[in-house]
Amino acid sequence: RPYLGKFRPIVNQCCHRCTPDSLNLGQNSSLGFRNLLSVNETQTRYRGWLVRRVCFALFVSGRKVYESPVSNRLERLCQSNRMREALTAEHEASEGGDGQGQLKLLSPYHALVNTCISSGFLRFVGWAVLKMFASVFYSIEVNLNHLSALHRVSQEGSPLVYVYVRQSIMDYALIPLVLFCHNLRVPYTVYPLQINSSSLRSILQKVGVILLPPSAQTEQDAEMDSLYSPVMTSLVRELLHEGQAISVGVSPESGQGGQWLARVIQIIKERSVPDVRVVPVGISYDCVPKTNIQVDECNRTLARTHLTREMCESRRCRVEEWLPLQDLLLPVILNNRTEGMFGKRRMSWLLPSSHYASELEEPGHPNRNLSVAIIHHLIFSATSCMAVMATSAVSSLLLYRRRKGVSVSGLCRDVDWLIDEVLLRNRDVGFGGTLANVIHYSLALLGPHLIIAAVPSRKDPFIVPRPSFAATLHLFLQAQTVTQTFILEAVGACAVSAMLCEVAFSGVKEDMEFDVVLCQSNLTERALQLCHLLPPGFMPPCQSSQNFAVDAVDSLVRCGILIIEEIPRDVSICDFWKKDGILTWTTTDDPYHSDSDCEEQDLRSYKIRQPSRCPEMLFFLCSMLAGHLRALCWTTMGLDHIDTPLASITPLKIRKRLCCVLTLLCLCSLCSIQVLSEERQEEGVLLGVGPLFQLSENRQKLHRFISQYLFN
Question: Domains in the chain, ordered, with CATH?
């Protein structure tokens, strides 16, 4: 279709529950997209054949630069109460002495504090990065509607904080480059990797890149220094006082980067700055650049603006119901008790505990919980505005729907159907053009992970994913944006699969014909249990888990998998087995009953639309969460086969031995359920099996609980 991808929905509206004063970006849909790499003479003040040869240099020379001189920043930083207390405590702990000795303690941080933005260096680096990206990417598409809104916001005076999900080393250059090319203030960029070249460090620090100290190889190493956190918090405070913008990347798997957002939140709570606007940023790649970079297409979308101060002061971001995962799931797993699972899962790993060494050491501290809630919200916002790329659509279809292979013509029909479904769910797509060109482009990028065979009896080539772990992992990662788009339906489908699994193991004969009737309360209960296992970024953090589970079940009705069937009120619904062969489940303490005393309990139940054969759509949706669930199962089973003493299992050893796709998320979940216990030592975090799960019987119960959602 020639219009494929040209319709752009207004993606990812503001959360008016947490930030009612947020600014919607993208109300005007007429501006469209622009390829950042398409620079020609029309974007300069000059014309002619010579201009066409040097148009990149002329283009960057005409960009507006908001310079950021240092201007005694180190002195102002040392005058803050936070730094005075940190320097005094550190100096007394080391040797004692006068004020000059305290200043010597800051010598490793002088270069970091003096990071600035120089006009000449920024133009040179901008030109070099543009030339480099022109040889790396096919195009970099920028949503002009969102940029026009950012121009309006930047004129209001409040500093901006850009938040994105870490995917590639290219992320750190994309955001400053796009803002620079559109005459917006270039942010100070937090770069979490170590750079050993002194000349390169000097250049980057003159274009606003905040680097790690030379002595630290990782962010974890830097946070171990008692002076690092107060110095960086004071630096962020000074930058926001100066009106500078900041760009921060967050990792949902490890939580790295969350400490920088916690610093911003802490500064706002202290009223050190009047207001800060946070902009979640979605960056979508057709193929995430690795060490060996290929020619890809990158679609970058700026989402919308949040008022973080509104979230901090009004406490609209609710954290009262956030509970440890062990409180939510252990009674269900070990004792089949469901009364304690109604609550929100606390994801404490999103904020490393070393950030709040004194004030917020306890995982359940209210201020720490609020910071984690806001970080979780921003991760969800950034992932929600990522566009579905062409390779994402093709990868999800080949991995989840056509695992045994499909012809090119069949794949075209599937992609056409999938894009319609994506747009109906108000998710943007990151491509355009004819369907044939989209498929050809996607297969070219995914070619190393596919087997494309020409069969003599067929006109169309036949496509099958390669039966290797590397190919499956690549397709799985590419398909994540599609999974996020269909997360409601995927959770509901896995809940249906779990209940069908119970029917299959209840002694029903295979040749017996029966209709499966699924009670609403039990189906919602299964969906709720699965919600607690989802990684961050999939579920709206400000929505209760119960409401999300109800929406997941309702979504299956909308997409035609389930049919609502009202049970007559004169018929008992407490029987497990009926004479006519209908299976039902129900509970007497339905948590979703109406608050009104005048309304009676809803007796709604559901039937699968095609009882003789499960719909193909159900298979497709169940497969979307199979990667994460199988990783949890493999990690649980792998504990039985590790020959290392359990008290000295490190995350690296588990990662090597299990070869798990989502190792970090699995470890966080298992630690939260107390399957694994953590012990911090000098050489790192050591993991051991918790007391409850040293029994093989309990590990088997955990495995059965997770595997019930895997459709086989």
Answer: 31-87+109-307 (3.40.1130), 390-506+513-568+606-617 (no CATH), 632-708 (no CATH)
